[in-house]
Amino acid sequence: MSELEHSHTAPDGTVYSHSHTHQHDHTQTKSVLNRLSRAIGHLESVKKMVEDGRDCPDVLVQLAAVRSALNNTAKVILKDHIEHCLVDAIETGDLQQIENLNKAIGQFMT
Fold first, then answer.
1. In 3-state terms, what secondary structure has residue 26?
2. Which of 8, 20, 45, 75 has its CA 20 to 30 A from that of 92?
3. What's the angle, vertex CA 80, arms to CA 77 and CA 84, rounded to 5?
4. How would you classify the pairing of strands 15-22 and 2-9?
5. pLDDT digits (tens, 9 = 90+) for 70-94
6. Residues 90/101, Cβ–Cβ less than 8 Å
């Protein structure tokens, strides 16, 4: 948890300055950790397949499963972020959070 001091400018030009602590209390943390553990297990299996000299198509299929698991985990994180952090940011006028999310989505999608 970190303390942030910053200002927000409302659409009417009014500037609000304040500080607060921003803690990421997400409702899906356990689900995300479970999904990541499964993805790690799949990736370890892929590593073992390569070490054992398994056929490339089999390795590629398993890599696709890992990628799918990670993408689905990202969807859970994004949904949770929108429902909690972004709603709070909009309510407090914290437009920086929206900009941060846009940048993160851009990096994730490339």
1. coil
2. 75
3. 140
4. antiparallel
5. 999 999 999 998 888 888 888 888 8
6. no
